[in-house]
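Hi R.,

Here are the chain sequences for the assembly we discussed:
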Amino acid sequence: MTVDKARILLVDDNPQNLKVLYETLRDRGHYLLIANDGEKALQLVRRHRPEVVLLDIMMPGMDGFTVCEQLKQDPATANSAVIFLSALDDLEAKVRGFQLGGADYIAKPFQPQEVIARVETHVRITQLERSLEARNRELEGDQARILDAISEGIYGLDAQGNISFANTAAGNMVGEHPDRLIGRDICSLHFTAGDDSPGLSQLGLGENGEPVWRRQVSMRRIDGSSFPAEYRASPRYESGQLQGSVVVFRDISEELASQGALEQARRTVTEQREQLAQASRLSTMGEMAAGFAHEVNQPLTAITNYVSLARRLLEKPQPNRDQLQEVLPKIAAQAHRASEVISHIRGFVQKPAAGRERIALAPLLAECLEFAEVDARSNGVPLELVPLMPLPAAMADSVQVQQVLLNLIRNALEASHLAGATEPVQVSAEVQEQMLRITVRDHGHGLSADAQERLFHPFFTTKSEGMGIGLALCRTLVQAQGGDIGYQREASGISCFWFTLPQA
Amino acid sequence: MTQPQATVHVVEDDEAVRDSLAMLLGSEGLPVATFALATEFLNQWTPASAGCIVLDIRMPGMDGMALQKALKARNSLLPIIFVTGHGDVPLAVEAMRHGAVDFIQKPYREDALLDKIHQALAIDAEQREALEQHQGIRERLTTLTPREKEIMRRMIAGQANKVIAIELEISQRTVEIHRSRVMHKMGTHSLAHLVRMVMSVQG
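And here is the predicted structure of the full complex:
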């Protein structure tokens, strides 16, 4: 086995011995250094850091034991392997040599082969040790760099919760140099005792030994201020014994703030959608106002007539009580009818209070159709509800569902009217692919392929007076409920608008 | 032929409005007939129908305007009072252009409505009377002989008996006899009245 070139220091006060040693090792390919006393030996080791020192014990002045002792005390020289050379063949000297950190022992007079074999062995061992050390240093350096580069704070804790390691990020976050955090108790340093503060068991130091993850824990900095933190604590075991834990933590105040901002933005969008829906309901009301005026005027007209009649009856010399008794309930009935129309309008324009909730579709559809009856009359197109199979409840905002359905029905009535169709507009509901599907069919002219494609886009309209908001808003409202909306032309030429709602 | 009674025909789809109006008009002593649909009214209409129509402008199926057109096509003379809602003024104007007598907005005051109805009934009576007179004049004219018609034409043109006698080469006495027959057959004693009667059917 070949050995890399090594430095070998030969130390002996006897020039003859040095010469023999030199001759023995000369051709082995190593650098050979020579010293004839202890002081010189120490100097050379410090300067050249030889792998192996062949060290005579019995020397005038500083003896070999002292040299060895001093070499081993200095970390810079401790890793040179010392092989003692001595005529002393007593056990005591050998033991002392080993106690002082000697690596081996060669008795004088020595055999060249033995010297070579032992030197080579220790050169190899020392070289391996040194490369291992270098590698270790490298790894430690890498590890330290990685730990310092990580943006999360990292604490190593011992089993009692004392900090044994802190990375740069940890120091930055808590406002202290990492070195000055070592040895301090994490609990008293960062947490205020209380219900919410984590104890040792929540720092990975509990008996169960499970990793712990916690979020939104308040951590105190060195200056006394606090920040919201998220941490993960993993227990560290060695041979089944809990040694401590590693706590990785980070400041989540920015995250919470952006989460808050996101939440705020979401609320704003919801509010705006709600406002748009409300505005659209009011605008629908405006469009339907003439129809409603008519609806209210009918009972008012009847009431006026009945009242005039009643007054005439009373003006007669002998009022006809029977006739009066016939008229009064009719007046009451018409007054009730007028108030019904008004409460319908209120019900439709009113802001929804509940948002999404369980709703039964059948009464909702019936109510909506009754409401749309006004438009059916003014368009001269019949409107009918296809008898429903029993349906499961939907999870939706009832006011918005009515708004969407009313919009589709009004479009259908208008389309039928424009086409001069006399077939009724039909509304039906069924369960399809786990969703509740509501369909409005009309016998109008239908839509071109181009129109179908852009139908639900904002500001697209086929009506001369339309804004192109209706269907786009319908889609927004339906999608907000977790449903979808669409158009298809059935083979029979019937136009069919549908939308879906999730089941409760 | 018995004269049909002048009746207020109420054509209105809303049951309550129809019922209340019928009762109110009934209390006024007016004969009333009610119809829920325009077609229902049209089916029972005859040229002899008399009175007026109180017609709702908005109705399912055939609406008020369509009924007005259909009646016009049948030369109906029944005056129509349109009943309209708030937003229907343009429609009402259109209806007036097509010959409606009047319109009234719902809800209306009874006085206003009754006034309009009485007016319409008066118009109808007048028209009907004029029509009957015309028919009488036409019937009488058919009883005249060609010679008598010739004499009458000249009388209306203002020719004196003497002129007529010379131009027709007959005696003045014969002219006088024809003349008194014309006056008798036309049922009048005054030349002025005769002129008016003949002008009215020729106009």
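Chain A has four domains: 7-145, 150-251, 267-351, 353-504. The longest strand of chain A covers residues 226-238.

Let me know if anything looks off.

Best,
T.
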